[in-house]
Amino acid sequence: MKHKPILLALALLLQVQAVFAQGKAIITGKISNPLSDEIVVATTPNPLIPEEVQTAVQLKGGSFRLEVPVNGAIVAELLHGEEVVPVYLEPGYELNLAFNGDKFLKTLKFEGKGANENNYLVQYTRRFEEVEEYQVMPDNIKLTEKEFTAFLDYRKKDQLKNLEKYTTKSPVSDKFRKFALAEINFGYANDKITYHSLRENVLMTTRLQKPSAEFYTFLKELDLQSQENLLSYTFTTFLRNYAKYNANEAGLKESDKAYFKTAYSSIVEKLQGQVKAVAQADILKQSIQQGHLKYTTEMLQDFKSINKNPELEAYFTKLYNENKEFAIGSPAPDFQLKDVNGAAVSLSDFKGKLVYLNFWSTICGLCMVEMPNMQQLTEQLKGKNVVFLNVGLDEDEAKWKITVTGRKLQGVHLYLKGMDAELVKRYNLKDIPAYFMIDEEGNFISIKPRRPTDRETANDILKHINEGQASAK
User: Fold this and answer.
1) Where in the numbering of this chain does the Thioredoxin domain appear (predicted)?
2) What is the value of pTM for the model shown?
3) Residue 451: helix, strand or coil by DSSP?
Protein backbone atom coordinates (compact mmCIF):
# COMPACT_ATOMS: atom_id res chain seq x y z
CA MET A 1 0.00 0.00 0.00
CA LYS A 2 1.47 3.33 -1.04
CA HIS A 3 1.98 6.10 1.46
CA LYS A 4 -1.08 8.33 1.62
CA PRO A 5 -0.39 12.01 2.50
CA ILE A 6 -3.83 12.33 4.05
CA LEU A 7 -2.82 9.76 6.67
CA LEU A 8 0.17 11.89 7.68
CA ALA A 9 -1.77 15.14 7.48
CA LEU A 10 -4.94 13.94 9.21
CA ALA A 11 -4.77 10.38 10.44
CA LEU A 12 -2.07 11.06 12.97
CA LEU A 13 -4.16 13.87 14.51
CA LEU A 14 -6.11 11.09 16.20
CA GLN A 15 -4.49 10.29 19.38
CA VAL A 16 -6.17 10.69 22.72
CA GLN A 17 -3.86 12.16 25.33
CA ALA A 18 -3.33 9.78 28.21
CA VAL A 19 -4.06 10.52 31.82
CA PHE A 20 -1.38 8.22 33.11
CA ALA A 21 2.40 8.38 33.11
CA GLN A 22 4.68 8.41 30.12
CA GLY A 23 5.19 4.91 28.78
CA LYS A 24 6.58 3.20 25.76
CA ALA A 25 5.93 0.42 23.32
CA ILE A 26 8.67 -1.78 21.87
CA ILE A 27 8.64 -3.05 18.31
CA THR A 28 11.21 -5.52 17.07
CA GLY A 29 11.32 -7.36 13.80
CA LYS A 30 13.05 -9.08 10.94
CA ILE A 31 12.69 -8.00 7.30
CA SER A 32 13.66 -10.08 4.32
CA ASN A 33 14.27 -8.24 1.04
CA PRO A 34 14.15 -4.81 2.73
CA LEU A 35 12.97 -1.82 0.68
CA SER A 36 15.27 0.66 2.46
CA ASP A 37 17.86 0.69 5.22
CA GLU A 38 15.51 1.95 7.94
CA ILE A 39 12.10 1.50 9.48
CA VAL A 40 10.06 4.36 10.94
CA VAL A 41 7.10 4.81 13.29
CA ALA A 42 5.36 8.19 12.96
CA THR A 43 3.18 9.52 15.77
CA THR A 44 1.54 12.81 16.75
CA PRO A 45 1.91 13.33 20.51
CA ASN A 46 -0.55 16.24 20.74
CA PRO A 47 -3.95 15.64 19.08
CA LEU A 48 -4.44 19.40 18.62
CA ILE A 49 -1.10 19.97 16.90
CA PRO A 50 -0.82 18.04 13.62
CA GLU A 51 2.95 17.74 13.72
CA GLU A 52 4.32 14.23 13.50
CA VAL A 53 7.23 12.83 15.44
CA GLN A 54 9.23 10.12 13.73
CA THR A 55 11.07 7.37 15.56
CA ALA A 56 13.48 5.69 13.15
CA VAL A 57 16.16 3.02 13.37
CA GLN A 58 18.62 1.59 10.90
CA LEU A 59 18.29 -2.06 9.92
CA LYS A 60 21.12 -4.35 10.96
CA GLY A 61 21.10 -7.50 8.90
CA GLY A 62 17.42 -6.89 8.27
CA SER A 63 16.64 -6.72 11.99
CA PHE A 64 15.55 -3.73 14.08
CA ARG A 65 14.38 -2.63 17.52
CA LEU A 66 12.25 0.46 18.11
CA GLU A 67 11.18 2.08 21.38
CA VAL A 68 8.20 4.38 20.81
CA PRO A 69 7.08 6.85 23.52
CA VAL A 70 3.39 6.17 24.15
CA ASN A 71 0.89 7.99 26.36
CA GLY A 72 -2.18 5.76 26.30
CA ALA A 73 -3.57 4.13 23.18
CA ILE A 74 -2.49 5.62 19.87
CA VAL A 75 -2.74 4.76 16.20
CA ALA A 76 0.55 5.52 14.48
CA GLU A 77 2.07 4.66 11.12
CA LEU A 78 4.71 2.08 10.38
CA LEU A 79 6.72 3.11 7.32
CA HIS A 80 9.28 1.17 5.31
CA GLY A 81 10.35 2.38 1.90
CA GLU A 82 7.16 3.58 0.23
CA GLU A 83 4.98 1.17 2.19
CA VAL A 84 2.88 2.22 5.16
CA VAL A 85 0.48 0.46 7.50
CA PRO A 86 -1.36 1.67 10.62
CA VAL A 87 -0.08 0.29 13.90
CA TYR A 88 -2.00 0.29 17.18
CA LEU A 89 0.08 0.85 20.32
CA GLU A 90 -0.50 0.97 24.04
CA PRO A 91 2.04 1.44 26.87
CA GLY A 92 3.74 -1.87 27.57
CA TYR A 93 3.18 -3.37 24.14
CA GLU A 94 6.02 -5.59 22.96
CA LEU A 95 5.43 -6.43 19.32
CA ASN A 96 7.56 -8.52 17.04
CA LEU A 97 6.88 -8.41 13.33
CA ALA A 98 8.20 -10.07 10.21
CA PHE A 99 7.58 -9.45 6.53
CA ASN A 100 9.05 -9.75 3.06
CA GLY A 101 9.65 -6.32 1.55
CA ASP A 102 8.66 -7.56 -1.90
CA LYS A 103 5.27 -8.71 -0.56
CA PHE A 104 4.80 -6.26 2.27
CA LEU A 105 1.12 -6.47 3.12
CA LYS A 106 0.69 -10.13 2.18
CA THR A 107 3.48 -11.32 4.50
CA LEU A 108 3.22 -8.83 7.39
CA LYS A 109 2.50 -10.59 10.68
CA PHE A 110 2.73 -9.49 14.32
CA GLU A 111 3.49 -11.55 17.42
CA GLY A 112 3.62 -10.64 21.09
CA LYS A 113 1.49 -8.35 23.24
CA GLY A 114 -0.84 -6.39 20.95
CA ALA A 115 -0.47 -8.85 18.07
CA ASN A 116 -4.20 -9.59 17.77
CA GLU A 117 -5.04 -5.92 17.41
CA ASN A 118 -2.38 -5.24 14.81
CA ASN A 119 -2.97 -8.39 12.79
CA TYR A 120 -6.60 -7.29 12.56
CA LEU A 121 -5.47 -3.97 11.07
CA VAL A 122 -3.34 -5.80 8.51
CA GLN A 123 -6.20 -8.14 7.63
CA TYR A 124 -8.69 -5.25 7.47
CA THR A 125 -6.38 -3.28 5.18
CA ARG A 126 -5.91 -6.25 2.84
CA ARG A 127 -9.60 -7.05 2.70
CA PHE A 128 -11.32 -3.68 2.66
CA GLU A 129 -8.78 -1.08 1.56
CA GLU A 130 -6.94 -3.02 -1.11
CA VAL A 131 -9.99 -4.56 -2.83
CA GLU A 132 -11.46 -2.30 -5.52
CA GLU A 133 -15.09 -3.39 -5.12
CA TYR A 134 -15.15 -1.83 -1.62
CA GLN A 135 -13.76 1.52 -2.78
CA VAL A 136 -15.80 4.62 -3.60
CA MET A 137 -13.50 5.41 -6.51
CA PRO A 138 -13.43 5.01 -9.40
CA ASP A 139 -16.75 3.31 -10.14
CA ASN A 140 -19.02 3.31 -7.09
CA ILE A 141 -19.15 7.12 -6.96
CA LYS A 142 -21.03 6.97 -10.27
CA LEU A 143 -23.93 5.11 -8.64
CA THR A 144 -27.23 6.84 -8.00
CA GLU A 145 -27.98 8.04 -4.49
CA LYS A 146 -30.03 4.94 -3.71
CA GLU A 147 -27.50 2.58 -5.24
CA PHE A 148 -24.60 4.25 -3.42
CA THR A 149 -26.36 3.96 -0.06
CA ALA A 150 -26.97 0.27 -0.77
CA PHE A 151 -23.26 -0.18 -1.54
CA LEU A 152 -22.25 1.47 1.74
CA ASP A 153 -24.79 -0.59 3.70
CA TYR A 154 -23.44 -3.82 2.17
CA ARG A 155 -19.81 -2.87 2.88
CA LYS A 156 -20.54 -1.85 6.47
CA LYS A 157 -22.44 -5.09 7.14
CA ASP A 158 -19.51 -7.11 5.79
CA GLN A 159 -17.00 -5.10 7.86
CA LEU A 160 -18.98 -5.63 11.07
CA LYS A 161 -19.32 -9.35 10.34
CA ASN A 162 -15.57 -9.55 9.71
CA LEU A 163 -14.80 -7.79 13.02
CA GLU A 164 -16.98 -10.21 15.00
CA LYS A 165 -15.57 -13.27 13.27
CA TYR A 166 -11.98 -12.15 13.82
CA THR A 167 -12.34 -11.14 17.47
CA THR A 168 -14.19 -14.35 18.35
CA LYS A 169 -11.03 -16.28 17.49
CA SER A 170 -8.51 -13.59 18.41
CA PRO A 171 -9.70 -11.43 21.35
CA VAL A 172 -8.81 -7.73 21.39
CA SER A 173 -9.01 -5.05 24.08
CA ASP A 174 -12.24 -3.15 24.63
CA LYS A 175 -10.49 0.10 23.69
CA PHE A 176 -9.35 -1.38 20.39
CA ARG A 177 -12.81 -2.75 19.63
CA LYS A 178 -14.26 0.74 20.04
CA PHE A 179 -11.60 2.09 17.71
CA ALA A 180 -12.36 -0.60 15.12
CA LEU A 181 -16.08 0.15 15.30
CA ALA A 182 -15.41 3.88 14.90
CA GLU A 183 -13.35 3.13 11.80
CA ILE A 184 -16.27 1.21 10.29
CA ASN A 185 -19.04 3.59 11.34
CA PHE A 186 -17.27 6.76 10.31
CA GLY A 187 -15.91 5.21 7.14
CA TYR A 188 -19.56 4.80 6.18
CA ALA A 189 -20.47 8.29 7.39
CA ASN A 190 -17.52 9.99 5.69
CA ASP A 191 -18.18 8.40 2.31
CA LYS A 192 -21.86 9.26 2.53
CA ILE A 193 -21.41 12.89 3.59
CA THR A 194 -18.98 13.52 0.71
CA TYR A 195 -20.95 11.59 -1.92
CA HIS A 196 -22.69 14.47 -3.73
CA SER A 197 -19.72 16.85 -3.94
CA LEU A 198 -17.30 14.12 -4.97
CA ARG A 199 -19.71 12.77 -7.57
CA GLU A 200 -20.08 16.22 -9.10
CA ASN A 201 -16.31 16.62 -9.32
CA VAL A 202 -15.75 13.18 -10.84
CA LEU A 203 -18.57 13.47 -13.37
CA MET A 204 -17.76 17.17 -13.95
CA THR A 205 -21.39 18.14 -13.64
CA THR A 206 -23.53 20.29 -11.39
CA ARG A 207 -26.05 18.71 -9.06
CA LEU A 208 -29.15 17.87 -11.06
CA GLN A 209 -31.37 17.54 -8.01
CA LYS A 210 -31.19 18.11 -4.29
CA PRO A 211 -30.33 15.16 -2.02
CA SER A 212 -33.40 13.24 -0.94
CA ALA A 213 -34.95 14.17 2.39
CA GLU A 214 -33.72 10.99 4.05
CA PHE A 215 -30.17 10.95 2.66
CA TYR A 216 -28.54 12.78 5.58
CA THR A 217 -30.67 11.31 8.37
CA PHE A 218 -27.75 9.02 9.23
CA LEU A 219 -26.06 12.04 10.85
CA LYS A 220 -28.61 11.97 13.67
CA GLU A 221 -27.64 8.38 14.51
CA LEU A 222 -23.91 9.09 14.97
CA ASP A 223 -22.24 9.50 18.35
CA LEU A 224 -20.12 12.56 17.62
CA GLN A 225 -19.31 13.45 21.22
CA SER A 226 -17.34 10.41 22.37
CA GLN A 227 -13.68 11.22 22.97
CA GLU A 228 -12.86 7.58 22.27
CA ASN A 229 -13.70 8.20 18.60
CA LEU A 230 -10.59 10.38 18.35
CA LEU A 231 -8.43 7.30 18.15
CA SER A 232 -9.90 6.73 14.68
CA TYR A 233 -8.26 8.63 11.82
CA THR A 234 -11.43 8.08 9.80
CA PHE A 235 -13.41 9.91 12.48
CA THR A 236 -11.00 12.83 12.33
CA THR A 237 -11.40 12.97 8.55
CA PHE A 238 -15.17 12.85 9.00
CA LEU A 239 -15.05 15.84 11.38
CA ARG A 240 -13.41 17.94 8.65
CA ASN A 241 -16.03 16.95 6.09
CA TYR A 242 -18.83 17.41 8.63
CA ALA A 243 -17.70 21.01 9.17
CA LYS A 244 -17.66 21.52 5.38
CA TYR A 245 -21.15 20.05 5.15
CA ASN A 246 -22.42 22.50 7.79
CA ALA A 247 -20.91 25.45 5.91
CA ASN A 248 -22.42 24.23 2.63
CA GLU A 249 -25.81 23.84 4.31
CA ALA A 250 -25.51 27.48 5.36
CA GLY A 251 -25.21 28.34 1.67
CA LEU A 252 -21.46 28.98 1.56
CA LYS A 253 -18.74 27.72 -0.77
CA GLU A 254 -15.05 27.45 0.08
CA SER A 255 -14.36 30.59 -1.95
CA ASP A 256 -16.67 32.65 0.28
CA LYS A 257 -14.96 34.87 2.85
CA ALA A 258 -16.92 33.54 5.83
CA TYR A 259 -16.71 29.86 4.82
CA PHE A 260 -14.22 28.67 7.45
CA LYS A 261 -15.70 30.93 10.14
CA THR A 262 -19.12 29.39 9.49
CA ALA A 263 -17.65 25.89 9.62
CA TYR A 264 -15.89 26.78 12.89
CA SER A 265 -19.06 28.22 14.41
CA SER A 266 -21.04 25.11 13.48
CA ILE A 267 -18.52 22.96 15.36
CA VAL A 268 -18.78 25.21 18.42
CA GLU A 269 -22.55 24.77 18.33
CA LYS A 270 -22.75 21.03 17.65
CA LEU A 271 -19.74 19.41 19.37
CA GLN A 272 -18.32 19.26 22.88
CA GLY A 273 -15.13 18.64 24.81
CA GLN A 274 -11.99 17.23 23.20
CA VAL A 275 -13.85 16.34 19.99
CA LYS A 276 -14.83 20.00 19.56
CA ALA A 277 -11.27 21.16 20.26
CA VAL A 278 -9.76 18.78 17.69
CA ALA A 279 -12.29 19.83 15.03
CA GLN A 280 -11.74 23.52 15.82
CA ALA A 281 -7.96 23.12 15.58
CA ASP A 282 -8.27 21.48 12.16
CA ILE A 283 -10.57 24.20 10.80
CA LEU A 284 -8.32 26.91 12.23
CA LYS A 285 -5.29 25.45 10.49
CA GLN A 286 -7.19 25.32 7.17
CA SER A 287 -8.33 28.91 7.60
CA ILE A 288 -4.80 30.13 8.42
CA GLN A 289 -3.55 28.52 5.22
CA GLN A 290 -6.51 29.20 2.91
CA GLY A 291 -9.06 31.48 4.56
CA HIS A 292 -9.77 35.18 4.97
CA LEU A 293 -7.43 37.02 7.32
CA LYS A 294 -10.18 38.87 9.21
CA TYR A 295 -12.13 35.75 10.13
CA THR A 296 -9.00 33.71 10.75
CA THR A 297 -7.82 36.29 13.27
CA GLU A 298 -11.18 36.13 15.06
CA MET A 299 -11.07 32.32 15.18
CA LEU A 300 -7.49 32.29 16.47
CA GLN A 301 -8.36 34.68 19.30
CA ASP A 302 -11.37 32.57 20.26
CA PHE A 303 -9.45 29.31 20.12
CA LYS A 304 -6.57 30.63 22.24
CA SER A 305 -8.98 32.05 24.83
CA ILE A 306 -10.53 28.61 25.37
CA ASN A 307 -7.53 26.33 24.90
CA LYS A 308 -4.95 27.86 27.22
CA ASN A 309 -1.88 25.79 26.46
CA PRO A 310 1.53 27.40 25.80
CA GLU A 311 2.59 24.76 23.28
CA LEU A 312 -0.69 25.03 21.42
CA GLU A 313 -0.62 28.83 21.42
CA ALA A 314 2.97 28.88 20.15
CA TYR A 315 2.16 26.47 17.30
CA PHE A 316 -0.84 28.40 15.96
CA THR A 317 0.77 31.80 16.48
CA LYS A 318 3.80 30.70 14.47
CA LEU A 319 1.59 29.21 11.73
CA TYR A 320 -0.49 32.40 11.62
CA ASN A 321 2.55 34.67 11.35
CA GLU A 322 4.04 32.53 8.57
CA ASN A 323 0.87 32.73 6.48
CA LYS A 324 -0.70 36.12 7.22
CA GLU A 325 1.19 38.04 4.53
CA PHE A 326 -0.45 36.00 1.78
CA ALA A 327 -3.75 35.31 3.52
CA ILE A 328 -6.97 36.25 1.77
CA GLY A 329 -7.80 39.78 2.87
CA SER A 330 -4.19 40.79 3.55
CA PRO A 331 -2.68 43.73 1.60
CA ALA A 332 -1.03 42.79 -1.71
CA PRO A 333 2.55 44.15 -1.83
CA ASP A 334 2.52 47.42 -3.76
CA PHE A 335 5.04 48.05 -6.51
CA GLN A 336 5.92 50.57 -9.19
CA LEU A 337 7.26 49.52 -12.62
CA LYS A 338 7.51 51.01 -16.11
CA ASP A 339 5.19 50.22 -19.00
CA VAL A 340 6.19 49.87 -22.69
CA ASN A 341 6.30 53.67 -23.02
CA GLY A 342 8.52 54.13 -19.97
CA ALA A 343 5.74 55.57 -17.80
CA ALA A 344 5.76 54.63 -14.09
CA VAL A 345 2.73 52.60 -13.03
CA SER A 346 1.92 51.36 -9.51
CA LEU A 347 -0.39 48.62 -8.34
CA SER A 348 -1.98 51.18 -6.02
CA ASP A 349 -2.95 53.25 -9.07
CA PHE A 350 -5.78 50.77 -9.62
CA LYS A 351 -7.44 51.03 -6.22
CA GLY A 352 -11.17 51.07 -6.75
CA LYS A 353 -10.87 48.34 -9.39
CA LEU A 354 -10.45 44.59 -9.14
CA VAL A 355 -6.98 43.57 -10.39
CA TYR A 356 -6.19 40.26 -12.08
CA LEU A 357 -2.39 40.13 -11.80
CA ASN A 358 -0.29 37.97 -14.10
CA PHE A 359 3.46 37.31 -13.81
CA TRP A 360 4.85 35.89 -17.06
CA SER A 361 7.81 35.78 -19.47
CA THR A 362 8.28 35.45 -23.21
CA ILE A 363 10.61 32.48 -22.71
CA CYS A 364 8.05 30.59 -20.58
CA GLY A 365 6.25 28.12 -22.83
CA LEU A 366 3.18 27.78 -20.60
CA CYS A 367 2.98 31.57 -20.27
CA MET A 368 2.81 31.94 -24.05
CA VAL A 369 0.20 29.19 -24.27
CA GLU A 370 -1.91 31.02 -21.66
CA MET A 371 -1.49 34.49 -23.21
CA PRO A 372 -4.15 34.11 -25.98
CA ASN A 373 -6.63 33.07 -23.27
CA MET A 374 -5.54 36.04 -21.19
CA GLN A 375 -6.25 38.28 -24.17
CA GLN A 376 -9.65 36.70 -24.71
CA LEU A 377 -10.50 37.17 -21.03
CA THR A 378 -9.39 40.82 -21.20
CA GLU A 379 -11.58 41.40 -24.25
CA GLN A 380 -14.54 39.57 -22.73
CA LEU A 381 -14.54 41.77 -19.60
CA LYS A 382 -13.74 45.06 -21.32
CA GLY A 383 -15.75 47.85 -19.71
CA LYS A 384 -16.08 46.00 -16.39
CA ASN A 385 -14.48 47.23 -13.17
CA VAL A 386 -11.39 45.05 -13.59
CA VAL A 387 -7.79 45.66 -14.68
CA PHE A 388 -5.67 42.93 -16.23
CA LEU A 389 -2.17 43.74 -15.03
CA ASN A 390 0.68 41.78 -16.62
CA VAL A 391 4.24 41.87 -15.30
CA GLY A 392 6.88 40.54 -17.70
CA LEU A 393 9.90 38.95 -16.01
CA ASP A 394 12.21 38.74 -19.03
CA GLU A 395 15.96 39.26 -18.77
CA ASP A 396 15.76 40.85 -22.25
CA GLU A 397 13.58 43.96 -22.01
CA ALA A 398 13.70 44.56 -25.78
CA LYS A 399 12.30 41.10 -26.50
CA TRP A 400 9.51 41.66 -23.97
CA LYS A 401 8.62 45.02 -25.51
CA ILE A 402 8.59 43.60 -29.05
CA THR A 403 6.25 40.80 -27.94
CA VAL A 404 3.84 43.18 -26.18
CA THR A 405 3.73 45.78 -28.95
CA GLY A 406 4.10 43.42 -31.90
CA ARG A 407 1.21 41.24 -30.79
CA LYS A 408 -0.80 44.25 -29.61
CA LEU A 409 -1.41 42.61 -26.26
CA GLN A 410 -4.33 44.09 -24.35
CA GLY A 411 -4.30 44.99 -20.68
CA VAL A 412 -1.65 46.85 -18.71
CA HIS A 413 1.89 45.55 -19.33
CA LEU A 414 4.82 46.34 -17.02
CA TYR A 415 8.42 45.17 -17.04
CA LEU A 416 10.56 43.67 -14.25
CA LYS A 417 14.01 42.31 -15.02
CA GLY A 418 14.28 38.60 -14.22
CA MET A 419 13.24 36.20 -11.46
CA ASP A 420 15.82 37.41 -8.95
CA ALA A 421 14.09 40.74 -8.35
CA GLU A 422 12.91 41.73 -4.87
CA LEU A 423 9.29 41.84 -6.02
CA VAL A 424 9.51 38.18 -7.01
CA LYS A 425 10.44 37.36 -3.41
CA ARG A 426 7.70 39.61 -2.02
CA TYR A 427 5.11 37.70 -4.06
CA ASN A 428 6.76 34.39 -3.19
CA LEU A 429 6.94 33.37 -6.84
CA LYS A 430 8.29 29.86 -7.33
CA ASP A 431 7.32 29.51 -10.96
CA ILE A 432 5.43 31.28 -13.73
CA PRO A 433 2.86 31.95 -14.95
CA ALA A 434 1.53 33.01 -11.57
CA TYR A 435 -1.81 34.72 -11.02
CA PHE A 436 -3.29 36.76 -8.19
CA MET A 437 -6.67 38.42 -7.74
CA ILE A 438 -6.72 41.67 -5.76
CA ASP A 439 -9.80 43.54 -4.59
CA GLU A 440 -10.72 47.21 -4.92
CA GLU A 441 -8.97 48.02 -1.63
CA GLY A 442 -5.70 46.39 -2.67
CA ASN A 443 -6.18 43.19 -0.64
CA PHE A 444 -5.78 39.62 -1.86
CA ILE A 445 -8.96 37.90 -2.99
CA SER A 446 -7.02 34.85 -4.11
CA ILE A 447 -3.34 33.94 -4.42
CA LYS A 448 -4.24 31.07 -6.75
CA PRO A 449 -7.26 32.13 -8.83
CA ARG A 450 -8.43 30.14 -11.81
CA ARG A 451 -6.18 30.47 -14.85
CA PRO A 452 -7.31 32.31 -17.99
CA THR A 453 -7.86 28.95 -19.70
CA ASP A 454 -10.63 28.08 -17.22
CA ARG A 455 -14.08 29.05 -18.50
CA GLU A 456 -15.19 29.90 -14.97
CA THR A 457 -12.50 32.57 -14.48
CA ALA A 458 -14.68 35.32 -15.98
CA ASN A 459 -17.59 34.27 -13.75
CA ASP A 460 -15.35 34.42 -10.67
CA ILE A 461 -14.24 37.95 -11.55
CA LEU A 462 -17.79 39.11 -12.26
CA LYS A 463 -18.99 37.56 -9.02
CA HIS A 464 -16.44 39.54 -6.99
CA ILE A 465 -17.23 42.74 -8.88
CA ASN A 466 -20.96 42.31 -8.26
CA GLU A 467 -20.42 41.48 -4.58
CA GLY A 468 -18.25 44.58 -4.18
CA GLN A 469 -20.83 46.81 -5.82
CA ALA A 470 -23.64 45.31 -3.75
CA SER A 471 -21.77 45.84 -0.46
CA ALA A 472 -20.98 49.44 -1.46
CA LYS A 473 -24.68 50.30 -1.73
Assistant:
1) 326-470
2) 0.84
3) coil
